[in-house]
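Lab notebook, bench 4. Still working through the backlog of constructs that have no structural model yet. Next entry is a single chain of 1032 residues. Request: give me the structure tokens for it.
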Amino acid sequence: MQTSSPVKMPDDNAMEGAETQHEGGNVENPPTGEEVIPQSRGSDYNTARDTADTSTTTANNEVDEATETNGNDTSNGSGDNSSGKKDTEGHSDDNEAQNGEGSDKHGQEDTQEEEGNDEQNGKQNDDHKSDHNSESTNSESESDSDSGSDSESDSDSDTEEAEPRLKYSRLAGLPKTIFTRDPVSATLVNDNIVIIATHSGLIHLFRPNIELIRSFKAHSASIMSLSTDGTYFASASLDGRVVIGSISDPQDIAASDFKRPVHAVALDPNYASSKTFVSGGTAGNVVLSEKGWLQARSDTNICTSDSTIVLLRWIGDVVLWINDDGITIWNHVTKQQVLQVPKPDNISRADLYHPRMHLSDGHDRIYLAWADHIWILEVTQEKKERGKRLKKEPVNDGMSIFSRRILSTSASSTKSPQPETTVAVVTKFRVDSLLCGISTFGADMLMLLCYTKGERRAQRPELRLIDAASGEEVSSDELPLNGFESLGPNDYQLQTHAPVQKDAKAQYYIISAHDGVVARERDLTDHVQWLVEHEKYESAWVTCESIYGTVERKNLGIEWVESHVRDELWREAGAALSLVLTAFLGTIDPQDTYKHTIWSEDWANWAFIFGKSNNYELLANYLPDQLQSSVYDEYLRHYLRDDAEKFGFYMKKWQGLFGEGIEQSLVEEIDSSEDDKKTSALKLALAELNIADGKYKPALALLLELRDERCLDLIEAHHLLSDISPKDIPSLLTIGAGKDTASTLAALDKASAEEIQTTLKRTTELLVEGYHELPPKTVLSSLPESSPLAYVYLHSLNQVDSFAARDYGNQLMALYAKYDHVALSAFLKSNNNYDIGSAVDLCRADKSLTPDLVYLLGKVGRNMEALRLIIDELQDPYQAISFSLKQKDSELWNFLVDYSIDKPLFLKALLENIAMAQTPTYKLIERIPPNLEIPGLKGCLLNIFTENELQLSVTKGAHEIITNECHRETDALGRLRMGGVAFDGVGMDEFAVKSLDGKTVEVDSLPSWQAHDGSFASKLAHVSFLQQQSGR
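Model written out:
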């Protein structure tokens, strides 16, 4: 087994000055002395489960070696090793001193017997030792930090040290004689009592905070076992007596003499009422002592054997003991044995190595450690009634940290179901060293106190954590206890004190004959401290948020920053500083000026540090906007000298935060700079500064000079067109289109109209939309008359407001003729604000403008000239036909027919469009020369005939429809005229004559004799006459 070198510790007398009594402290946290720094051992530890009955002699050899060490130790007065086979009977209270001497002698004889076993198994023993000492030890360390269990501490290992799981501290506040002149022989830790017993027979009762209750001498020899039910305590000694007393009442105490050394005692969990306990020792008997008649003690042997009883525990209704027969569990209620586990073959005698036991918090699991074996037993207490199982109930034990009370079986109702307790072995496995203690750690781990014997002397005890399911080691710490070199495995004990408070941590007492240590699970504070010690500052800073104050956490964050600076990691340092101080600011109350001052000063100090190391850029971007102006001034002046672009960036970012002197420094640097690029960048920065200060005109002048497109935004936002000088207009129009105005104009002269409009769209729209601020006259006077700038400006102005461009029709016409012929045709046809003569001359000068010239000639009435241009220049028969028909001039049409009569293409066009002409088709056909070949003539004729037939068919169909409609309406009219009208004639006193379109022609009154006195027949005759007269 690999071990590490010892750690330098304080003198053994360091505890001499401790007070025997002190004021009470926190019940959950006993007073502790100096911090104990254990050595971490490599995690190459392996465990193996027993899969067969095969046994080895290796552990037996270690037991023998340990016994030899115990023998040497007890010769100094400990009396820890006594033999059951060699003891004489009949020890009484009067000869307690002789009893102690006899124990020492028998211990020496037992040692001699086991030395013989060592010689017989020498080879196996050497092999086992070599396994335990195969790894080299490390040099001494004086570190003050917590040592841990999850680390690889081999000196040749480069792996990173893992964080420990436990922290340790010396047990302080004890009487000064404990651990020094009076070695400890037994301890017990309960939820309300801590008992320490010594080899001289002294018992010290403490509260959980190690406040001394009382000390007294109970025995004349070594005390071997302690027990409590929470109210009473019991002690068993080699002097043959069992002493039982009240924890609170010093007068309530009694002793029982069993005449033989007693190694184990256990109180009934209900001892306060039952006065029952069990004990055992070298006599080999397990004695049940009960209250008899007249308060007399009644003893009953529940087990008789020839071997020493080395462990006794009372758990609920069952009693557990261990001797050479193995592990026995006996039910006190049923008086029957529940479980028997044989002693492993590699353990020669039970009393040579004391087994250790731990009961789980729920009292449903028993953890046993004996030599190098571990058993996990499950305890189940069931109630049976009429063959049915009821709910399981946890058992109770007075030795447990929880002093739960249950009613004794004697007080139970006879009508209630009788409980039945069963115990079964759940898990069994072995480890590679001797075990001095066992406990649970968390929900799924075991804590083991291990003993290792070296080649010449004992090694430091190890506190290991293993996985309870697999047995694999999780961590291991070597404990530098005082006097470990002369101690054996029986001189160490592990006791667990579980917390009463819900969130408190368990405490583990590791007690030896000469020293005591309290182990605790590391909390979040310890985790942060470990991270800091191992320079894991980022994790420490993140983790400590819930446990550190704001300033304390900020200071830890500053340590993180400083660690990066030490490593020359300035970029990481800047990021960390920003994170730390930003988080600190978020926790500060707005009214807390003190913390705000701390925050501001930290930023200022670190800004100076970064600047002094010439790492401005790595912090500048993190600087907040609430610092004093001197910080920003320093950084801006640095960039003003070394990086003009960064100066502009940060000047804009920190606008309003720096001092007034920065602007003057900027102007001076511009004037003195000979670097054009730097000068441009600084001028841009000055322009932005002017904008921020509301000085728009100087800013606009600088941006125009720099040809920066941001000037357009500035003009739009603040209506600055009127402030633009005419000489700057060409530059303004070409901003964003090229490096300078001249090169841009040269490029645009070769571009298409669409490209020109696209390139200058933004600036053109700006000038056109603001023509009320900057009149067109001013703009055009500053532009070359035939330049693309004038074209795009006038074109856009004409599109937006043609009235504003009315005075520039001739110029626009000329610009269209140069840059945009399509726009020229549209302009000539849709506008009248140009000189038509100039337009004719302009179009006549450019043959590509002939269509526009034709339009202009037609517009002024020069139709014949226009037609000749179409025929001669354009040679477009269809346009010629369209032009002639549009003019509605027979002379033009005849001229076109005469011109086309001997030209096939023109004749074909005429034939195709003859239907629109006034000339009949047959007349045109008659004039065609006989031998003239006309391409497509057949098709033209077929189209003509087809169209004529279609037209005739349509005409006939329309005629038939009209005829049928006339007949139908005529028939309806006849029927109306011939038909009569039924009416009653009452009130008829007038008649009206209406035409067919419904208009009233004549209204006349009937004669009174007909209207009132006339008969119906006379009225009817008169109405019929009227209908006939009106044409109905």
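Notes after review: The mean pLDDT is 77. The first strand starts at residue 32 and ends at 36. Flag for follow-up if needed.
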